[in-house]
Fold each of these.
Amino acid sequence: MAPGWLPSLFGGARLRDPAYRFLYEPGPADEAVAIDCETTGLDTRRDDIVSVAAVPIRGARILASQRFQTFVRPQAKLKPDAIKVHGLREADVAAARPIAEVLPDLLRFIGGRPLVGYYLDFDMAMLDRHVRRWLGIRLPNPRIEVSALYYERKYGDAPPGTQVDLSFAAMLADLKTPLLDQHDAYSDALMTAMAYVALSDLAARGIRIARQPSRGAPRFEIG
């Protein structure tokens, strides 16, 4: 019995709507979906999603023309700090669909394909809260964290004491990936997809990212 089979079996047994059993069916082996959400704030229990975007990846191709992208009308109030980050105001999302109407389309779009993100746990926590309420499960899709892939390529062989910077800007600069408008769900998902393809290529060719003396405050040090 495959190690990942039992969790999928029990999760599928809890699924309230059998029409969504396709979430447990893996997509093509060379496909994944980069995903990003913008929110009313950073509290995964009380804040809401205001926009979500997903970009398919097939092998080394990013299928940007086939993207999923939508605003979402939140129940929670937009916090001033969040507005400063993504620029979305109450008026910008007032006419959008609520998350309960967006989720069916989003889930059919992503299917059972792996989800790729930058600090993906936050986005998944925001989505899973609604998916659990509706379907009784968390999203069963495999999850791929690009900051972990980046860490492995740049710092996986680093000696103790090496300063580590896993910021989005540092990763994109190392990968020579264009810096688009950050904190826009589609732009962030697209940049994440580009980073994932670049990191996958480096890993396949056994190439590491060169380390240079760190500038500015590091995120942490390797102990």
Amino acid sequence: MIVELITEAQASGARLQPACKIVGLSIRTVERWRRWPERDDQRRGPRQRPANALTLTEETQILAVMTSLRYANLPPKQLVPQLADEGLYLGSESTMYRLQRRHALRAKKRMIKRTHVSRANMVHRATGPNQVWSWDITWLPTLTRGRYFYLYLVMDVWSRRIVGWTIEESESAELAAELIKRICRDSNVDPRGLVLHSDNGRPMRGNTMIATLQWLGIVPSFSRPHVSDDNPYSEALFRTLKHTPAYPRMPFADLVSAKLWVTRFVAWYNGEHRHSAIRYVTPNERHLGTERVVLDQRDELYERARCANPERWSRGTRNWSPVGTVVLNPQPDRAAA
């Protein structure tokens, strides 16, 4: 009967997915029933509630946290580590995503165009801070059409920390060279042997920039020629910058307002943003060497949660060990290929 009703609805112009949703079935179930017409409805009534299911109180608490003013903009992958740092375990990421789907709390994803490119042949490995840096320049719109401010950003590949930045009204190798010298001086970093990766833009390969790097003892590294997406860490940083909810919807009125906003962004990114590639610790925690304390506290919290409800854990607890070596432009595994 149900299959006949769905078939009739489709014949009248209805799509299969909405029709299945109305009767409370999945598309796979209907397709399976159609293969065996003699078996119409094979359901056996409501299933027994799992013994390890969340209680109504626990579910209400999780929903209250996810819809609160403080955490409403955070996805579960960011929310779970933040709650762990505050000494609170409410449920796993999958549990929170499931509750979001059930109660229609998930925001519509913004479509992002992704293009596959092979990375540069030069491979650099970082086992600690200030070994490999990546930098690039992005444009910030102004009130004048066709006029932009230029944001120079330098980040540490190992810790993802923004180690220096500046906003200028033009792109030039001289300004980039002054920025690198200022970062090394203000951060008290020994630049000898440090790798600085960038794309092949004109400021990156300018004579003043190359001469400054040689004078400082910095090893320049460049992406492949004519490949714009070959600087992955800086590209990911700019994507975070321009997709954060705090990014201004209107162009910047002047250089002062642009610098003020970037100052706030850098403080948030380095000190509050929990980066997914480094076990959801902040770049400052990793760069300054306090990440192990944070991760150990999370591991202890998860062990206590597992002991409190062992039936909810089919495997071990989440891996909270620190990320070791970070590789810039890793080579593909030929054996696996």
